[in-house]
Amino acid sequence: MSRPTTTPARSSEQFPAQVNRMFDRVAPRYDALNTAMTAGLDRRWRERAAELADAPEGAAVLDVCCGTGELAVEMARRVGSAGKVVGCDFSSEMLSRATAKAGGLGISNIDFDHADALRLPYADESFDAVTIGFGLRNLADHRAGINEMSRVARSGGRVVVLEFTRPRQLPLSAFFDIWFDRLVPLLGRFSLDAGAYSYLPASVRDFPNPQAVATLMADAGLTNIRYRILAGGIVAIHLGTKP
User: Which pTM value belongs to this model?
Assistant: First the structure.
């Protein structure tokens, strides 16, 4: 049986399961393709998101939709051996890669959990900081995902959202369209799952603009919300504080 090359509509009941299967399939080449697609800038963007999370040594941090653990590892380095990071994801293959990565780096203050970002299995106000890197757009309900992140953040804790966005001004907007709509799917062929990397530009195109994301964060009860646009408008990092 051939694999589907399109992802069902976000409102479809099949959306979460098919996205989950898609990430299971691309997990072995996920890091290499991310580096290729972003010219290696994705690591710097995660470092910036970790800086804005401002989690002190000894803090408890949750990284939602942790994927292969890149942002979770960065947060673990920052909170130190007295701190604790939990990375959660819906994809078992991604979690397997994340666990192996942390072990290979000798980082022991991370736990990786299989969890649904729309129904996080953690008590209210469990974490000093909550992050998500390039995962919010993959959720069936962006609002519910942000609400859950806010719920598990402690009073005074920060919620940080790192995500792709679309540049609005020429010439970068034209370059972005060419890169994401044409070249990224070509790169995806190296993952043996071209359909997965056709999904990426579609998911970015359908994702709310930065101001709309800020509004969702405010609706979730977060305060002092601000966002920074990086790489000429390709990436946005949102920051909010749990009152």
Answer: 0.91
